[in-house]
Design brief:
The structure is a homotetramer.
Chain A: H1 13-32, H2 44-53, H3 55-81, H4 87-101, H5 103-112, H6 117-143, H7 154-178, H8 182-195
Chain lengths: ~210, ~210, ~210, ~210
């Protein structure tokens, strides 16, 4: 046994900082890829039709930004309960960040061919992998008492599972619809993040 | 009621870190978009005429950088009073960061066609939305005593309202002028950030 | 002698923050360079052949992301033992960050011509320089008691040396193979990061 | 007078975080602009001549990275003495960050036409403005006792002035030489950062 003097703290703060950096870049980087509208003429109609051309790009940007915001929120909440890390926890974190970094890429694909089944597939799989890899990291962390910062109430554990798994479930439905009515898939992409705005059982634990 | 042992801290420090990351990227990213000047020849005149060609790009870069600096300052000041967060406060923060991330995009549009009414419109609307969304986040935060870090003097509250709303007001004037004398609009874009350098009532609270 | 009142703290926290920023950008930036797949047609076969075309790009992205994750981990572990900095320690840190920043560049080269000896050479040399420059920074830091945060057990010192030097050793083998069977070199690039997932002697010091 | 309960802390930590973010992006962003070498053939000679073609790009990248590293160091040292901020201090900081963000731009110009007088002029002026704006921020900060974290010894003040002003002085010489022997100017760009590696009077204050 290692005596406590030699035992490392391994506080989670550095991993959180890496994550905050990655999220802030992934969120910002999507804007570089927005092409500026080409307005042909000087009237309102010209301006509006130029806006219309970049409309689906913007829609995808907005959805992805809000989704990344929600994932950042989930990631941030995880560290309210988990305050220390170990090697495997950090490796799982790196995998999570890897799929997060792919979101601007998937967004570009979806913006490029919004109603194609394969664009919807790539986007839905990417977002689902974000949720699932964070969920795995969470499950690993809460299993190890030495990593915990505070006691995890059973209610929070259950609610977290729902919040982690609801998106992949809905995105699976979006994939299924993509072959027939891709507009429904896009609708699901729009509605899913809004669900996280509804009151949930974790609100009671907020200050 | 949740007992205090289970109540989460939800310190604002992580949201501040995300915001600092987003601001620093938005500020830096604008430079990637600056085209390097093409100097045709080896004389001073060649150099100066090359500089002239990139002059409006640079002007837009400078204005946007200083405006983002001022918004970062407002965002930073908010957290002197608000020290904790909840779910909705964070969501409002994500919306604020979303419009902040669009500033390099609007700047590119303005730099591309500086004196067009629609460029001025997009830029003015974007900057106004930054101020207004931060103001909404601020109003939400100061309404909830559990989020406050320290008491908010009435004088600060009033002065903050003025500082939040002065830019959108001036930018509305800039939009109005853009249809007739767009040079005045650009002048307003230049002068507005300088107003934030004037002494104000918050200076008394500084160290 | 300077009295203790004037002696600077020089906590390592700022250098860690700079490093976290650089790592998060280097990790994220690689995605910008991923070209989106061009799907010619609407069938599964079209989609799969488009994926295949970007397959080696993705492989290189994955390898580099995980390698950067491991280097971030090593960098993070260093600061569990070293809590203060001086001028030369920071300069060595800047050199380390400089070669880290080149990883997206080398990755692009490897992704562009994956099986060419010179791509493998550039990539292997870049990754080796990352490990070696961090090792030099580490050796400098642990030699100066004033920089240490806690006592460094002899076992950790030895294990760290192995972990620092194992990659450059394997990458040298990858370079040697690149002239004859470059597929083996790529295999080494894939396997090397996985070795860091095996249990090691540092695990005993984890919480 | 405002009573101490209402007086804001205005700790410098947020400004430092913004700065660390901006430095890490400015340092990393230069790599995106490095074009990958085009190797025509499969021999050593082909590889070396490809390397040669990107040689001046790399030289500029290395110089700028180290210069930014040194400026980060100066910026970091400033906050060992200054621990609080006010509005004007932050505005001066934004100006400093603005010229820092332009370094990747100037580097691109220098890399594009390394031996032209106007490239050298732009680069030298940019780096000088970095030093001078940081120096102005420093002078403003140390003049206000309320911002200071610890006492500033006279010796440190003098040495800081030398370290702040030595680069602009040398860069002025580089500009002068650029019209006759631009190779000397490049030599000055290479040597100047190395001067900061020499022992100086601040070393005595290090841990």
């Amino acid at each position: 046994m290692i005596d406590s003097k030699h035992r490392l703290q391994m506080k989670s703060i550095r991993l959180e900082a890496l994550g905050d950096g990655i999220f802030s870049i992934a969120m910002t980087i999507m804007v570089i890829e927005l092409a500026i509208p080409v307005v042909k003429g000087n009237g309102w109609a010209d301006f509006l039709s130029a806006l219309k051309l970049i409309g689906s790009d913007f829609l995808c940007y907005f959805i992805s930004f809000v989704v990344l915001g929600i994932m950042w929120y989930g990631h941030r909440m995880m560290f309210e309960y988990i305050g220390h890390t170990d090697r495997y926890f950090i490796f799982l974190g790196v995998l999570f960040y890897m799929v997060i970094c792919l979101v601007p890429f998937s967004t570009r694909i979806l913006a490029h061919e919004t109603l194609k089944w394969y664009s919807i597939l790539v986007y839905a799989v990417n977002l689902s992998l974000c949720n699932l890899s964070l969920y795995i990291q969470w499950l690993y962390g809460i299993k190890k008492p030495a990593l915990m910062e505070r006691e995890l109430p059973g209610e929070v554990k259950k609610e977290a599972r729902i919040l982690f798994l609801i998106s992949p479930g809905l995105y699976a439905v979006a994939i299924a619809f993509s072959f027939f009515i891709p507009e429904v898939s896009i609708g699901i992409f729009i509605i899913t993040p809004l669900l996280y705005l509804l009151p949930n059982k974790l609100d009671r634990y907020m200050p």
